[in-house]
Amino acid sequence: MEMLQGRDLPDIWMFVRVVEAGSFSEAARRMGTTKANLSRAVARLEKTLATKLLNRSTRKLGLSEAGRAIFQHALHMVEQAQGIEALAAGMQAGPGGLLRVSASMAFGNTHLAGLLPAFLERYPDIRVVLTMTDRYVDLVEEGIDVALRFASRIDMQSAVARPLAPLHYVLVAAPGYLEKHGVPAGIEDLPGHRCLTFGTTGAPAIWEFVTGGERARVRVDGVMSANSSPSLRLAMLRGGGIALLPTFVVGEDIRRGEAVQLLPHIDPVGTFGDRIYAVYLENRFLPPKVRVFIDYLVERIGERPYWDAF
């Protein structure tokens, strides 16, 4: 394999455009060039990398396994170049383009999807692709512009983590459950209650709390476990038991009186950390679409999230 040189950048650019267009002919039409020119550029890049990038057929164009990984890196290079162009042309005031966002299933469904319409109305030249998953997302490999993550701290070498909002937790139960089983007077009463725990093994859970400046741990046997906060919320609302949940999941239920916060003088320690971060690749020329999206989330959520209004 040869070393990539500056002269290879146009070939990388053309490779990205061919993949985005889905065919050589469509890419040629968009770029105002010929199919032959684009084909030669991709062939040169494949020779330089000693790797097949595209699987060609008469009806379909697809990425090879290596091509999929290389495309994400190439796309990042192209977007960085476009950021430099935008900066030089004084176009930073007009963000646009495709914005790829990743979030957890719970936060994406509960809040982020509802926040996007006002953002898109404010910035009509931006289009958003929202990917919701509870697994770790590699920004480069999967072509993600911004990932929303929960953590106590984030250590990264090639990415930036901007704090968006605090992440709080509460013990909650439905009024019907408390009428039937009573209200716990302290954390020492929790093992005697029906508890709904986060996890997949069904093993007893350890709930941790801060009380009087000290940390305390309580072992509870869950009558139901799930690896989904919204699922635990639904079971709790149906009278299934006591749950320890993030306030972004259950805050509105407390405000409406459909759930009751238990032991409010004690602070639960959640399993997902204590802050929501917006994580994006380090870039001196931060694309305007990324900057305005993160600014919008800070504006709409901030240090006093609306879901904590209860």
TrEMBL record:
<dbReference type="Pfam" id="PF03466">
    <property type="entry name" value="LysR_substrate"/>
</dbReference>
<dbReference type="InterPro" id="IPR036390">
    <property type="entry name" value="WH_DNA-bd_sf"/>
</dbReference>
<keyword id="KW-0238">DNA-binding</keyword>
<dbReference type="InterPro" id="IPR036388">
    <property type="entry name" value="WH-like_DNA-bd_sf"/>
</dbReference>
<dbReference type="InterPro" id="IPR058163">
    <property type="entry name" value="LysR-type_TF_proteobact-type"/>
</dbReference>
<dbReference type="InterPro" id="IPR005119">
    <property type="entry name" value="LysR_subst-bd"/>
</dbReference>
<keyword id="KW-0804">Transcription</keyword>
<protein>
    <submittedName>
        <fullName>LysR family transcriptional regulator</fullName>
    </submittedName>
</protein>
<dbReference type="Pfam" id="PF00126">
    <property type="entry name" value="HTH_1"/>
</dbReference>
<dbReference type="InterPro" id="IPR000847">
    <property type="entry name" value="LysR_HTH_N"/>
</dbReference>
<comment type="similarity">
    <text>Belongs to the LysR transcriptional regulatory family.</text>
</comment>
<keyword id="KW-0805">Transcription regulation</keyword>
<feature type="domain" description="HTH lysR-type">
    <location>
        <begin position="7"/>
        <end position="64"/>
    </location>
</feature>
